[in-house]
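Example record

Each entry pairs one chain with its bound ligand, adenosine monophosphate.
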Amino acid sequence: MRLILLGPPGSGKGTQAQRLVQRYGIVQLSTGDMLRAAVAAQTPVGIKAQGIMASGGLVPDEIVIGIISDRLDQPDAANGFILDGFPRTVPQAEALDELLKKKQMRLDAVIELRVNESALLQRVETRAAETQARGEAVRADDTPEVLTKRLASYRSQTAPLIHYYSDRRKLLTVDGMMPIEHVTAAIDRILAAISDVDAKASKAAAAKRIAKGFNKGAKKGSNKAAKKAAKRGAKTAPRKASKPAAKASKPAAKRTKSTAKAAKTSRKAGKTASKGAKRTARKAVAGSRGRAAAKTRKTAKKTAKKVTKKRAKA
Ligand code: AMP
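Structure tokens for the complex follow.
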């Protein structure tokens, strides 16, 4: 899940981001927290940002864009993230689009926490008191004077992002004036709906891929069928055979040639066989002629004996 939480100072972005971290196991990327850490460590970026932050102004775009770009590359951001306090200007939003494109990451949603400005001063005062009660250092910019300036820069530089993301159909607005639990529940419902849409979209995409695979398989199958038909012989192959089928008819032609050769051989064999038969027949005829002649000779001998006997009696 990759989200942006959008809202003026004191709208509850930090509180909701922490709940999302616990629920979804994704990281909270707060440019405010990163800049405060840089100020505390007195890094070159921290030294540059310190005065600007204390006065309620915005740190230059290139600084925060650089910080976010590095942070997105870290392994814990691979699972998903919530951007809290970034982007804060249209150039930052455009830079983020580029970064995500380069890193092949897709933004799921921008959740705007909409609150009445009149309630913000009270909220920021409560936050400062609670921080003090925990024994932690109160933020230098959590004062009524600085808050007025921060609200002014939100109106002029950050509020245009509402149109920016609504034009890109990424914006989802939640009533940030509700009790914390209700805001959390509303965000949960939004995220559940997004996951549902995503799941349906990936199901549809998978079905499309499978259907595509089937079509390819069917095409391959028809080619196979054509090849089989071609193998059965040129006569049975479809007249308008596809290219592979036409190619496949070559072996069939070869086979026809060899069949013709075999037939010739068998005809030859037939001729040879009939020659032999004729010879046998001739022999048989000759034999029978011989036997008949011998019989005739025997009969002639018998007749001659009978005639001699009759003559002797006479
Ligand atoms: P935050 O904790 O988000 O209220 O931020 C505290 C302060 O850090 C802001 O008033 C700005 O001075 C600075 N800051 C945080 N995020 C940005 C940003 N994206 N662009 C410019 N300045 C920022």
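DSSP finds ten helices and five strands in the chain.
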